Amino acid sequence: MNWLDSHCHINDKAFRDDLDTVLENMVSNDVRKAMIISSYIDDYEFGFSIKHPELEFKHSLGVYPGDVDDTDEENLKRFEELYQENRCQAIGEIGLDYHWGKENRERQLEVFERHLIMAQKLDKPIIVHSRDAIQDTYDLMKKYPVSGVMHCYSNSAEMAKEFVKLGYYISISGTITWKNAREPLEVIKVVPLDRLLIETDCPYLTPAPNRGKRNEPSYVVYTGKKICEELGIDEEDFKKQLNENYHRLFRL
């Protein structure tokens, strides 16, 4: 079994100059699968050009909460058309962000709700971003039951259990390796292994010992090893479980 990155942005411009090296680093570190996340149609289309004979990429598209003010009805209809394609494995990342978007909460709620309705209609899993908006996120997700994952989960262990009850997966990022990590360490102790995923969210949230550098999919290994260390589980067993979870969630 191999490691995987359930959420990365290697279609971002941050990787355009050395993408081949980034892909080779994945192979070298035994990270063989990744979900490429897009918020823009141009990046989404570029993602399909990213190929390597030893790597398997899947693709997700969604209106990021920070972009809702620039999203009109025509944009939403175009996104929904793309969601219907078989090559789109999930809808996301979507959700709510009140940390950066305090003035447009109503619009964020409106667009998020529209996406939940689309996910129900199309029977597609969602990838959820939630920052400083956990209760509103939970309330809407409870109202519109679909499958999905809480991306880069950074809230309490108690709320993680509530999302698991709704049927969601919890994805842990490199923040669990940081010195001030507390909540992620508590979260992994209450989330069943069959509901856990790992991710980089690269080029952001670089794990230790590489903090200060651009993040990349090969660094997901640090997150995976940290979880194994904290839970006292075998790495091969954990990799097998991650692959099962990833395939089950995204219906691969």
Report what the structure shows:
This protein is of the alpha/beta class and 252 residues long. Helix 6 packs parallel to helix 7 (183-190). An 8-stranded parallel β-sheet has the order 1-2-3-4-5-6-7-8, with helices on both faces. It has a single domain (3-250), classed as Metal-dependent hydrolases (TIM Barrel, Alpha-Beta Barrel), CATH 3.20.20.140. The model has no long low-confidence stretch (mean pLDDT 97). It is built from 9 helices and 8 strands.
**What class do helices, strands and sheet pairing give?**
alpha/beta
Question: Strand order within the widest sheet?
Answer: 1-2-3-4-5-6-7-8
Distance from first to last alpha carbon: 16 Å
Number of helices: 9
Rounded average pLDDT? 97
Strand content: 15-25%
Per CATH, the superfamily is Metal-dependent hydrolases
Task: Tell me the Rg in angstroms.
Answer: 17 Å
Descriptors for this entry?
9 helices; 252 residues; eight-stranded parallel β-sheet; TIM Barrel
